[in-house]
Amino acid sequence: MIAFWKRFAKLNTCEILVKNAIVKKNRMVRMKKRIISALIILTMILILPLDVIAHPGRTDSSGGHKDNNNKSGLGSYHYHCGGHPPHLHSNGACPYSPSGNSNQTKQMPAIVYPSKVNFENILKEISIGDSHIVKGYVYPSNANDKSFTWKSSDETIATVDSNGQIIGVRAGTVTISAITSNDKVSAFNVKIIEVVAKSIAIDSEINTMNINDTARLTATIAPENTTNKDITWISSDEAIATIDSSGQIRGMGAGTVTISAISSNDKVSAVSVEIFEVIATGIVIDNKIDVISIGDTTKLSATITPANATYKDIVWKSSNIKTATIDNEGNLVALDTGKTTISAMQKDIQTSFELAVKQIEADSIRIIPPLDKLNAGNSLLLDVEIIPQNTFDQTIKWEVSDGSIATIEGNTLLAHKSGKIIISATSSNGKNDTIEIEVDSNSWWRKFFSFTQK
Fold first, then answer.
1. Which of 152, 243, 400, 423 has the CB geometry, 3.0–4.6 Å to 233, for a possible disulfide?
2. Using an 8 Å Cβ cutoff, are 198 and 222 in contact?
3. Which distant-in-sequence residues (6+ apart) come within 8 Å of 254 by Cβ?
4. What is the pLDDT of residues 386-398, one digit of tens each?
5. Predicted confidence (pLDDT) per residue in 29-64, tens digit
6. Distance (Å, rounded) from C-alpha 155 to C-alpha 164?
7. Contact call for residues 159 and 228 (beta carbons, < 8 A)
8. CA-based nearest residue to 132, from 167, 84, 100, 104
9. Distance between CA 35 and CA 40 in Å, rounded?
């Protein structure tokens, strides 16, 4: 019995070991399958073209899908027929489908992508400021998207708008490009050139002018769209005429001068202008005088006719500089009595007048008031104020109205008897002043006061 149980226990142990071995084997098999599957997947990943996994997205009913980032390089749409790499269906046929197979699955119309843009009406050169329209056509003509954009490589040289209109801005070479929706670029070069002057002509008909006169000259450059319209003006002799950058000419001296207008590319137009002198025909002294006193000054002026006479400078002259002098500004100074001839002289004509210089005379005199009363038998010294004080002849003539009442000896008044008298003082040139004096009778007490007055 014990032996039976030992044998039974031994059998159970073997069964357990067998079951464990089977489980372990199954685990190993599953592990191998997993490893093999992983290796297969890894191999497929390494073997398949990169383009297949270059982008995500499910295929649509046409068997293709969008590729907005164009990772495949085939545009924004392509196919993956039969798991093949991304491709296009040219003319609606899949390149991986067997040709001539009537059982071939019907393909949906393929998208036709632009390959380039063809141009029409290209110009190699355009002038600054000019415009020109170039036509562009997407190729192939059956491309689904025929849109494209224009672009200038340097808009400071030329611009191009959405209609293909090119406008020249400055001299240089620029590349004009047309870019399709799938980034295909077609381009051509355009040279922007200056429009140079072909001719220049002075418009103004000015052939003569006077010295000191001014006039404006103008010139026209052809063609009208010349890029640089700067004009340089030149005078052949600036001693005869000058001309500034604006074309203003001024007569400087008598003679003939050539005035030239020169364009930026050295085209020349010239005119001959004769400059004349306007001769003075008359001269008049405006404020001449006949007499002046010693020490007096005055300023003389003169007018030349005609008013547009070329030379208006006047030279003044005194024939007797001891009597009077005059400078070129017309300032005259009287120095001594006498006569002199004052002349005003222009280059072509002159005039003159005689001037007398006399002593300074009194303008007025005033008797300095003495006592208004004087006693008979007494005397009074008379005095007078002469204006101006530097009057040359200061001689005064004294007179009394009644010589029986008083007399005058020199400038002393002598009272004789009572009464009223008028004393008169007169200068050498007739200026006069008078006063009234009363003479009292010569009583004893007046004699006393008369003594004190003396």
1. 243
2. yes
3. 211, 240, 275, 276, 277
4. 998 888 888 999 9
5. 777 778 877 777 776 655 544 433 345 456 665 667
6. 14
7. no
8. 167
9. 9
